[in-house]
Write a structure and sequence with these properties.
The complex is a heterodimer of chains A (589) and B (150). Chain A is of the alpha+beta class. Chain A is built from 18 helices and 18 strands. Chain B is α+β, with helices and mostly antiparallel strands and 150 residues long. Helix content of chain B is 39%, strand content 15%. In chain B, helix 4 crosses helix 5. Classes of the chains: A alpha+beta (589), B alpha+beta (150). Chain B: This is GIY-YIG domain-containing protein.
């Protein structure tokens, strides 16, 4: 026998604590939309009122009110009071309810603002109730106030609830402490609402609008595309299509209790393949956006009573944190009978699996995971095979059998004495340059280097500095991170390597070729070869054009190289968004 | 009559700059770089015209126009007079600009008043270069050392 001891509750602190359980703005709004959906609303409107209407939508901390209006069943006075209670009952709704704790409306609202207003009618007339967090905290007791409907609220009723029933939830006195901008909230909600209420939007005819924008249903598994494309063959899939890994299967989590869930898994596209699929048509970004392929979006989407309760869950590690699973999309459909196997938090944003559920789902998905990973890797291999046969090495290899013209028609072969003099001058210049090249290489590597240059270097350092990397396959054309004065290219000569070119791979024009057009292997090879011919021709002039002084030639040809480098950088800067691969025929048609 | 004293930031003929626009009252910092022939003063026009990036970023962050700001200050930091920094090809300048912005973001909490860094800068592949790191550090040190008197 035990004595019952009364432990009083400070309602103010309790409500304050409830308001700080970590809702994001979009999760809070979705929790309120849940109430509208279960109240059989056909139309749900979200309005966001700004603190300063003249301020940009991009400004943070500028929201005055969130207003959620639905034309659902509505509530009479008693039902509103019940809804405002902490731990409100859900008796008058069917067993497909989205509610779980009877806390959502209050915790979600107070997570964003200090005042919650509920205006509702079940057809018998609108009533308004208001709960203020500061007032509750001051009084240390939980209470609502029945207040008059204001003029602007009557206008909302007139506009959105002409049939005389429905509910308006207003969250005001928004806490403007790191509160997201209107634009970011709307952007996030468009995706979140589309996915969370996918079934309601696509099957039940529910319309959700934010401002005047209707939200489209988004199936995170893109099942309709998988239906068209069929099953995944992980050894052949090139990453361009959505495929089935597991068509919907019913999985029993508990035989005795007859707890069943439905699981389905698809493989989404491999975006990098869309960079190279069609030359000049880089669509990888578009594909990533369309299929929501990014770090936070792969894994299992768990729907409870057809409402998403867990976004891209890794289900406690069943799906590893690994980029190779980016295209893995699973869905688990449960109803409230499975709640004990999927412990859901108040925010409906995360869940914890029971031991049985974890074991069953983990075992069931082993093959699917393996297929998804193998397919992703295979698509990566196909992609790499297409884009990168190491074009720099190919360009160098092409030169194995190539011999430059000794002397051009019309040019006089210089006397041996002059030729040797010129060759010595070139060699001396290049030799004295090596120490500067090594210094630049060290700086690029982040090493501390004195302003004085060191003549003492190893052969390995020399090779790495001249070529940009130690690579025996590179014999003439070197892509390096630094060239004197940051020009696009410079000639290099020594007796072992002969005439070579050092291309500044960080120069804007080189980046256009090597990075922006990475998938265009032929362009890269031709560019490398062209650069070598430019360098070769400069060295040819130094050696063979005897009618000009060597020092004059050096100044003039170097200036010419500088001007070309600058003009190309300027062209890239001015035409940045129009140059290939961004060029579009339509724009210039 | 409004008097505006301007000097020392016109020469862009053989000189590139990192510059910082600062308003202590409105707590904003905007970092940029230029090799404009007219120096940082010449570059200013592009920031404050109707489509200017500083003007746009200011409105986005503060919610009101930069026109209302009465304490904005331009700080210009000359870069070495060598081709890497003065050329049209701007990877060296961009790298310094990026590192200065990054350091100011780290520094802002330590200064009083604190500020938001409202500029957007591009990441340059040269930010690992030791010479560039040194340059950026000296600019930020100079900014920090003088902050109280701005």
């Amino acid at each position: 026998m035990s004595d019952k001891i009364d432990l009083s509750i400070d309602a103010g602190r309790l409500l304050f604590g409830l308001s700080r359980i970590g809702y994001t703005t979009s999760a809070a709004i979705c929790d309120i939309i849940d109430n509208s959906v279960r109240a059989n609303a056909n139309n749900i409107n979200l309005l966001i009122k700004k603190e300063r209407e003249d301020f940009s939508d991009n400004k943070r901390n500028n929201v005055k009110e969130y207003i959620i209006i639905d034309d659902g069943d509505g509530m009479d006075e008693g039902a509103i009071e019940e809804a405002l209670k902490l731990g409100s009952t859900d008796d008058h709704y069917d067993d497909k309810s989205l509610s779980k704790f009877g806390l959502g409306l209050k915790s979600a609202s107070f997570s964003q603002g200090d005042v919650l207003k509920v205006i509702s009618s079940d057809g018998t007339g609108f009533n308004k109730y208001e709960v203020s967090l500061p007032k509750v905290m001051e009084a240390k007791e939980y209470f609502a106030e029945k207040t008059e409907i204001e003029e602007n609220e009557s206008e909302l009723i007139e506009t959105y609830l002409k049939d005389g029933k429905g509910t308006i939830i207003i969250i005001s006195a928004i806490r403007l402490n790191n509160h997201p901008s209107v634009r970011n909230t709307i952007k996030e909600l468009k995706t979140k609402v589309g996915v969370i209420y996918f079934y309601f939007l696509s099957e039940s005819g529910v319309n959700i609008t934010i401002g005047d924008k209707k939200i489209d249903a988004i199936d995170p598994l893109f099942v309709s595309e998988a239906n068209e494309n069929g099953n995944l063959n992980e050894n052949e899939w090139d990453g361009t299509e959505v495929r089935w890994i597991e068509k919907p299967k019913e999985l029993t989590l508990d035989d005795e209790l007859k707890i069943n869930v439905t699981i389905e898994i698809t493989q989404l596209p491999y975006p990098p393949i869309y960079r190279i699929k069609n030359i000049g048509e880089s669509r990888d970004k578009e594909v990533r956006e369309r299929y929501l392929i990014e770090a936070g979006n792969y894994g299992f989407y768990v729907y409870r009573n057809k409402r998403l309760i867990s976004w891209a869950s890794n289900l406690q590690g069943i799906i590893p944190y690994d980029q190779d699973f980016y295209a893995f999309r699973g869905r688990i459909l449960i109803n409230d009978e499975a709640d004990d196997f999927f412990n859901i938090d108040v925010k409906k944003s995360s869940l914890t699996l029971s031991e049985e559920a974890f074991r069953n789902i983990s075992d069931f998905t082993k093959e699917a995971k393996s297929k998804s990973k193998a397919a992703w890797k295979n698509a990566g291999k196909i992609s790499r095979d297409i884009i990168n046969k190491a074009p720099n090495e190919i360009a160098n290899k092409l030169l194995d059998e190539f011999e430059q013209i000794e002397i051009l028609p019309g040019d006089d072969l210089p006397d041996e004495e002059i030729a040797l003099e010129r060759l010595k001058a070139i060699t001396d210049d290049m030799t004295s340059k090596i120490k500067w090249i090594i210094k630049m290489m060290k700086e690029d590597k982040g090493e501390e280097v004195d302003d004085t240059v060191d003549d003492d270097y190893t052969e390995d350092e020399k090779e790495e500095a001249i070529k940009g990397e130690k690579n025996a396959n590179l014999t003439k054309i070197f892509r390096v991170s630094s060239v004197e004065d940051n020009l696009l290219w410079e000639p290099y000569y020594d007796t072992d390597l002969g005439n070579c070119v050092r291309i500044n791979k960080i120069h804007r024009f080189a980046r256009l070729i090597y990075e922006d057009n990475a998938e265009n292997r032929d362009l890269q090879i031709l560019f490398d070869l062209m650069m070598l011919q430019f360098a070769d021709s400069e060295l040819y002039a130094y050696k063979n054009i005897g009618k000009y002084e060597y020092d004059d030639l050096k100044v003039i040809l170097r200036e010419s190289r500088r001007i070309v480098s600058e003009f190309l950088a300027n062209m890239c800067r001015k035409l940045e968004n129009d140059l290939p691969p961004n060029y579009s025929d339509e724009k210039y048609a | 009559m409004l008097e505006t004293s301007i000097f020392g930031a016109f020469n862009g003929a053989d000189q590139a700059y990192i510059y910082i626009w600062l308003s202590k009252k409105h707590k904003i910092v905007y970092v940029g770089m230029t090799n404009s022939y007219t120096g940082t003063i010449g570059r200013a026009g592009a920031h404050f015209n109707r489509k200017g990036t500083l003007r746009k970023r200011f409105v986005e962050t503060r919610g009101y126009e930069v026109n209302d700001v009465d304490d904005i200050l331009l700080l210009s930091f000359p870069l070495p007079k060598t081709r890497e920094f003065t050329s049209v090809e701007k990877s060296y300048r961009e790298a310094v600009e990026y590192l200065v912005q990054k350091e100011l973001i780290l520094l802002r909490g330590k200064l009083n008043p604190t500020f938001d860094v409202i500029s957007w800068v591009r990441l340059s592949p040269r930010t690992g270069n030791s010479r560039i790191k040194k340059l950026a550090a000296s600019i930020v040190n100079s900014f920090e050392a003088n902050y109280s008197r701005f």
